[in-house]
Specification:
There is one protein chain. The protein is mostly beta strands. The chain has one domain. It has two helices and 17 strands. The protein is globular and about 85 Å long.
Length: 249
């Protein structure tokens, strides 16, 4: 069985839709929903194969060593990929009266360890209590360098919508920006903010879509989103199911 202590990075292709209807003067917004199509393209982890490190011991000698090492996180898994979709005007049987293809991805991808209730007013910014709860769920030590608040350390983010709820820029306190070209991205191209589902007591990981940008790999690959999700790999070998939702705007 694949262990959860390994950082799993998967390519996720998501096809989704968001619809706005105006009927008899009332405005109905579509909440984030299940993707119409979902494909796991691949998954990989850090290569830990390195030459053997050794040194000859000589009686009477005192030897200074400089050692560097990289350890795979036991708290996080990563997902990245592209989103394509269509805005539609459909009936209950999915018969289309009209549709609009989306050339550029805009909106959000959500992931949570359970079914999320996106009903009006239920999704809020994660607060310090929710962060501590998530660290407990992930078995994170208080001194861990890859804890939740250490990872989602930014307090600024762009404005976004979750269904009919509007979140202004910098409203939420815990945001992360994943890397570009194998390093820290000063432009913060890929932003991810922690939200909370009050009805189900769930942490909701929300990544903003940004159309076809250079991603964490060095090369020409371009992605619409990159995101981290919490995964307890501290001696636990079970895998965790994450449920994905998408909202296109």
């Amino acid at each position: 069985m694949r262990t959860r202590s390994e950082l799993q990075i998967g390519i996720v292709t998501v096809i989704g839709l968001a619809v706005v209807l105006s009927i008899a003067g009332s405005l109905v917004w579509a909440a984030p929903g299940n993707p119409a199509g979902f494909e796991v393209v691949g998954s990989s982890r850090r290569n830990t194969t390195f030459p053997t490190a050794s040194v000859e011991a000589i009686a009477g000698n005192v030897t200074e060593l400089r050692i560097t090492s990289t350890t795979t996180t036991k708290t996080w898994a990563g997902y990245y990929g592209n989103v394509t979709g269509t805005i539609v005007l459909d009936d209950a049987l999915n018969n289309s009266m009209f549709s609009w293809n989306l050339d550029e991805a805009a909106g959000e991808v959500y992931a949570a360890r359970g079914s999320v209730d996106f009903s009006s007013g239920n999704i809020i910014c994660a607060n310090a209590t929710h962060i501590q709860q998530e660290e407990n769920n992930l078995s994170v030590s208080p001194t861990a360098k890859d804890g939740v608040n250490e990872t989602f350390a930014y307090t600024t983010h762009p404005a976004f919508m979750v269904g009919d709820a509007s979140f202004s820029s910098d409203q939420c306190g815990y945001t992360a920006s994943t890397y570009v070209n194998d390093g820290v991205d000063s432009s913060r191209t890929f932003n991810e903010t922690l939200l909370y589902d009050k009805a189900d007591n769930l942490t909701v990981y929300m990544a903003l879509l940004t159309s076809k940008q250079d991603g964490f790999k060095i090369g020409t690959d371009k992605y619409d989103f990159q995101m981290l999700v919490g995964e307890d790999g501290h001696g636990n070998t079970d895998t965790t199911t994450y449920y994905f939702y998408v909202e296109l705007q």
